[in-house]
Every structure is written in C-alpha cells, then in structure tokens.
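User: what does the whole thing look like in 3D?
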Amino acid sequence: MKHFSEVYGLMRRRNKKQYALLVGCCFFSVLLITAYVCMMRAPTVLNVLPEGGDSRKQVMMIFILAVIGCAVFTTYASGLFLRQKSRETGVFLALGASRAQVRGELYRELGVISLSSCAAGAILGGPLAWILWQVFRLCVVDTEEMRLVFDPDAYMFSLAFSAFVIVMMFLLGSRSVKRTNIIDIVQESHKSEPIRDVPRWYGPAGIGLLALGGFLGYMSSSFFVVVLHWYPPEGLTAVFYVPALVGLYMILLHTVVNGWNGKRKLYRDLIATSQMRFQGRQTVRNMLVMTLLIAGAYFGSFYAPTMGMGAMIGYDTRPVDYVYNFRADQDIPLEDEVRALAEEYGVTITDFAAAPMIRLAVDGDDHIEEEGPMGTTWRKEYEEVMNSDLFLSASGYEALTGEHVELAPGELRGVVDVEGSKLGFDPDKRFVTNYLTWERLPVTSLEPLRFDSLFARYVMNDEDFAALGAGLPEEWRETQVCFNVEDCEKTYDFAKALFNEIVDRSTMDVAQFDGWDPVIRDRDIAKKGFYFLDRENCAEAGFTVIDYEQRDSSAFRLDWQYMPQFRVLDKQDFVKTMAVFLILFVFVAVVCFSAVFVIAYTRCMTIALTNRQVYDDLRRLGASNAYLRRSVRGQVKRIFLVPALAGTGLIYAFYTMIMYFNGSPVGITPSEAAGLLAAIGVIAAVSALMYAVYRLTLVQVCRALDIRR
Amino acid sequence: MLTVENLRKSYQVGKTSYEVLKGISLHVGKGEFVAVMGPSGSGKTTLLNCISCYIPADSGSIRLGKTELACLGEDALAEVRNKQLGFVFQDFLLLDGLTVRQNILLPAIIGGTVSDRTEARADQLCEVFGIPGIRNKYPAEISGGEKQRTAVARALINHPLLILADEPTGNLDSKSTRAVIRSFEQAKTALEATIFMVTHDSYAASFCDRVVILRDGVVWRTLEKGATEREKFQDQLLDAIREMGRGEN
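Assistant: Here's the predicted 3D structure for the full assembly of 958 residues, as structure tokens:
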C-alpha cells in the first residue's frame, strides 16, 4: 500500500456498512421516485385520473411529499456518512494531508457512489413499477385497460432527482472537508445543536393552530368559490394550511424540548430528554418531515379501504338487485328476454318491474364564469330551461319501488339516496318543460323521496306525466327496469351476460359520457359552437370517450351514461374497476412509508454517533446496560412515536373532517363510518410494521453504542 | 529547533474575549525531550495546538528550524505537519481500518513517499518500540499501550524535526504509561528525536530533560532535570506544582 487512494480503498472495505447504507439510500430513493413517476406519468394511469381532478391533485401532492421525503433522507444519509467519515478525514488532515488531497479522494468516492446508485435506481425504477404492476394484475385484476404503458418523459423527473442527489452529495462533501475541524477530531468533541427555551404553551397552542389550519385550509376553497364566487389562483388555498404546519412544528418542538409529562418523570427521562434537546433543531425538522410523510402515506393507504368499504356498503344497501335504464330507441332486453336469459343461467327472478320515463327540461341556475382583474369569478344566472332530467310517473315509481306516492297536479318530488344525500342534485324545481313542444308546467317541489337506485330522478303526477310526455320522440323517452333475484350473490354469470347483452345491443347514439345532456348541448352549441361532452370533444376536454370494447374498464363503468347497476357485478368487479386507483395509492403509501423508515433509522443512528461520548461517560459513572438501554430507547422511541402519533392523528382527523363535510347535508354516513373503521385497520397494520422497524433500529443503535442486554 | 516568541492567543465566547496565551516564549533544542505542565486552563493544549498549526495564534512567532509557521499558507502548513512534525494524541487517533503497520506508514502514504526504505523503517520502528508481533493486527485487537506505541512509531516515520504529544499517557494505565515513555526515550536516544509533550502526569514529565510549567497563560517556571535522578526530579515537579497551588490560594 503506497498511495493515498489505496488507504481510502482499505477504509472503504473496512467500513462497508457505512457505504452500503449510503448507496442503499440513494439507490432506494431514486428507485422509488423513478418507479413512482413512471407510474404517475404512465398514460394508463393518467387516463383514469381526470385532469384537474382531485385524485390527480392528491397523487401529485403526495408525489411532492415523497420527493421531499426522499430528498431529506438521502441528505441525512449523506450527512451521516460524512459524519462517520469526518474522523478519518480529521486524522488525515492532522497527519499532514492537504484539504485538496482529501477532497480529491472524497469526491472520487462520492462520484462513484452517487453515479452508480442513481444510475441503478433510475434503470431499475421502470422495471420495478412494471413488476409491481404485473403482480397486481396477476393477483387482482387483468384487463386490457391495466396494460402499463410508460411515458419516456417520466425519466426526466428521475434524471432531475438523480442530479439533485449527486449535486447535494458533492456540496455536502465539499462542506465536510472544509469544516472538518482537526481540533474537534483531536479532542473528540461534538458540536451540539441547541435550541432556545420553548414555552410550555407551545404544545396546546400548536394543537390549536393545527386544528385551525386544517379547517381553514380545507374550507377556504369552498369559501372562495361558494361564498365569494371567486376561483382563487392555484396555491392560494395552500396558504391557509400554513397555520397547521406551524402548529405541527410547535407541537413537535414542545414534545422534544419540554415533553408532555411535566416534571413527573423528570429524572427518569433526564438523559434521553436532555440529549434530544441538544439535537433539537434537526430532530424536530426530521420529525416534521416524517409526520408529513406518514400523513401522506396514510392518506394514500386510506383511499382503498375507505372507498372499498363505502362502495361495498353502498352495494349492499341498494334496495334492488338489478337496475338499468335505456332509451326507447334502443333494442335492449325487457322482461321476456331477461327471464329467458335468467333461466338459461338457472337464476330465479322474484319480481320484475319496468316503468316509462321521459326526459324533460328543468329550470335552474346557470354557472357563468368570467375573467376579470381578480382572475376567474362566476355568477349564477337563473334559466327557466337549464338542463334536462328523467321523470317517472307516480304509478311508475310505485311499480318500481312498491312505494305509493300521492301527488297532486303540479307537484314534484326528486329522488335522493337512502341517506338523504343530495350531492350534485338539486331536487327543488319551479318549472318543467317539454323541450320539443315547449309546453311548460309550473311545479311545487315537495320533500324528496329516498331510493338509492333511482337517485336523481323526479316523480310527478300521472296526468302531468302524460300531458308533458305527449309528442316526445323516442330519444326523449326511456325505460327504467328494476328486478330482484334469488341468491343474488350467485348470479354473477347471469349479471355479466345481461350486462354484455345490453352493451352489445346499445347503438353508438347512446355511447355517451354520464352527464351528457341534450338541453345543455343545444345551449352550448348556440353559445360556443361546440358541446364538450360530445364524443368528438370528450378526449380534448379530459373526459372518457365511451368505447363499448372497453366495457370492463373503470372509465367505462364509472362514466357510461347507461351503465346498469347490477349488485353482484358491481361488487365482484369492484377491485377490477378501481384497480388503477388502488395500485397507485398503495404504491404512494409504500414510497412514503419507506422514506419514513429510512429517515427514522438514519436519524437514530446519527444520534447514536453524536452521543457516543455521553454513553461512554455514563458507563464510566456506573450506568448499567439496562439504564443505558432505557435511555437509548427513550430517544429512539420518541423519534418513531411522536411523528407516528402526530401523523396518524393528523390525517385521521383530516379524513374524518373531509368525510363529514363532503356530503350534502354534512355528516358521517354509515358507509363513511365503515370506511373510517377500515382506516383504523390500516393504521393497526402499519403501526405493527412501524413497531418492527423501531425494534430493529433500537437493536442497531444499541449495537453501535456497545450496549448489550 | 522550535522557538516560540511572545505567543498570544485569545478565544471569543459571546461578547467576552478570554486571553489564554499571554505572551509565551520558549525554545526547544534539537534532541531535547521537553514537557509542558500546568493546571487546567493554563493554556497547555492551546499552546500545542498553535505549534501544531491547528489553530492560528493572534500574535507572536513560532519558528520550526528556519521556517516561520505563521507565514505559511494552508498547503505549506499541511506539508510541515506531514514532513516536519510528528503527532501523538491522547486518543491515539489510529484508523480502525488499517493494520498497525499501515497506520505507522500513513504519514508517508499521505506524503507520497512510501518506498521499500520507508517500509523497512516502519518495521524497524516496530522493533524499536517492541511491537513487531502486532504489526499486522488492527487497532481494535491491541491494548492501549500498544496503540500509543504505534502512534509514536507513526509520528516518527517521516523523520520529523519535532514530535508533538498531547497527553500521550492520559488514557493509559501505569504499565502502558511506562511503555510509552520508554518509547519516547528510545526515540530520543536511538533516533535523535526532539519531543515536545503536554502532560498532567508528573511521572511522565519526570523523564523529560526540561519541564515548562504554565500558569494563566504565561510560563510560570522552568525546571531543568540535568543530572538529577528521575525520582528526585519528580519530587521537585510535585513541589513546584504544590507551590503554584499555594500561590493561587
């Protein structure tokens, strides 16, 4: 061994673990970001996340969080690596190596580490996303829609992140060589990071700010749009979340510096608390990032179970097993054909009802957006002919539901779901118009009826129904069918066959996006020259183009205007229908939790290294291994437990708030309650995993400090 | 060899400035074994750190041979540390990933001067300091005394003009202390090394030719050993320290 670089090589071989940790962290972060971005930017996923929609915003938000998380943990891993290296750097400098000499060797190492780990992560990120996706396809669902196609542009994100990792490493490396203080090395002393005294009111005030920020952030958007009639610029509503972030920081600061136990356990926790205090600033920053990542990860994790539970309960509480409607100009199976098909599949239909519906224009408020000096504002403009809806006669409604409805002429009742939710539907109308004859009937809207399967229909007096329906062509008439079967759970094949039959026999005239409305269409064409939900404009406007060949896709099943509601089909195909959402959110959760674990691990190891001298001194003062272990546990536990509790509590409260406010009227519905319960199941599972990582970290930290059982 | 003249150094803590060295002057001749003693806060370690060029002095002069250290740039100082100074630290500062022999060779490796002759010298130093049997062992596998003897050998590998030792026996038991002091004596006699040692230990200091006692940042007294027996010299040192303590009270 004659050259300085050979010494570095030897040290590298000797300290394999340190190198492995850094390489692993960089590789892992670039791998995760690449895989995530490959998935997020894949046309397969983009197709099911509507542009400007909440799902895409959530995915983007969590992606930003994941990038921050990965950036933070690679930075800490690099910091930890350089800290471990600083001793040998100090020795080299003390023995006469020049800084340029040390810097050269260090840069060479960092170059190899960063380039190789980033390249490996970027290269394998795509295949990882693909493999995960294939596993999901294999185990859960395999449809043509699920074929993962990558967008090569996704790699630009990966390259950008890799560039950040490389530049960050070199900057830290350069700073490390510049800062490595020979005296510090010689005296083996460490610089602590003290924080100022934190008043005890920080804790409760932080909780208050957190709650206030969460509430303001969530409600500000509705306030601007609904009350001020103003669309705030992107990002403005995010400002209202700032008090929540400040509150969270204050809570963590209070937890680290003061603790919540007051003076009760002052002496028992003295070492752990005081050591944490002197690592204050960085520890709190770490905890803040971990808390946000945990919250983001849970947000992703909750999506599947809450949506799944909600949907399952929704399917179970449907009052009718099979519901479908079709336009009168379509040749869709009716009772005889349905019964024949049922017989073919050995299914017994217990009752069958069909009722005519007519499409009539209704009044309402037009939503007119205007560009002004303040940005986009909107105003309401009442129109006597605003849009169209489907109407049943009272006798037709009775035939379908068995519920007798007494309605006088001119009286109208909308139908809402069984929980009374009116979301997106206004049952209060003043005028109903035959759009072709322009015969208009002033109406009085009564208390809405509740029947899930006929949500957003209206029921009117039989005579009014006949009078207003007169002269309507087939395109404006529909048939509503409801029937029940014996042993519904066992009728999947029949349901599938009937669904296929309906789709096969539907013409392209009804291949329309849900929400397509002939009245709005006419007005839009008159005003703008086109209607955004016409097939030829759908894609451009970011809506699904209905394709009968893609009948098993989530887009088709969620968005086709004439999609039947067959309980058994919806239930059993739920995972298939929602597959893209599920896998994406599961992936988000995996990325965020991995980042949390790595950050916690590296932080704990940093604390172990920083406090090594303290533990040696304590040992000299006669501290037993049990005492030292308890002290270490106190710190490691706090690093894991505080963000876990804060992140979990935070997101659970936020989720509950969303559930509470997102309905109309506000409140928690039974299906939402079930979803929240399912979320607790997820919390329990993740907490168990987090506990396992905590135990593992504790063992590693104790080993690093030579504390034996 | 080493000449320190009117050396001053102060530290700033907040708005308060503490003067640690208040105009220290001393000289160490070639082949001398000199110790610096003094109570905590007297400025011993600061003096050593200034001489080692680890921290810059506020004023005064430090000359090693004919070189004025205060005038040197960073690279030149690194060169001085590597070629003209040898270091022995209280905590040994051996690299765990290198064997004893590799640790001894480290200053030569850093300086890019490793040759067969240097390797032979490393082996010779192992022989001189009684550690040939452990030359291929790692620091974790050897005792404190052996680690410090390795550090002394490392300090000598580049034929430095001066060895600077900071509390070299501070972390050692009495047996290891004796072994390390013996290695300094061997370095002095067999290798004509010049040694400047900071210590609290009157036993270790009693082996030196001269002991400089610092108090409050100035040289309080200098004791020459001359022909005095070691035990008597140690008694003189202890008496001086007692006297200094009385003076403080």
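In plain terms: The helical segments of chain B are 44-51, 74-83, 100-111, 116-128, 144-156, 174-191, 202-205, 230-248. The radius of gyration of chain B is 18 Å.
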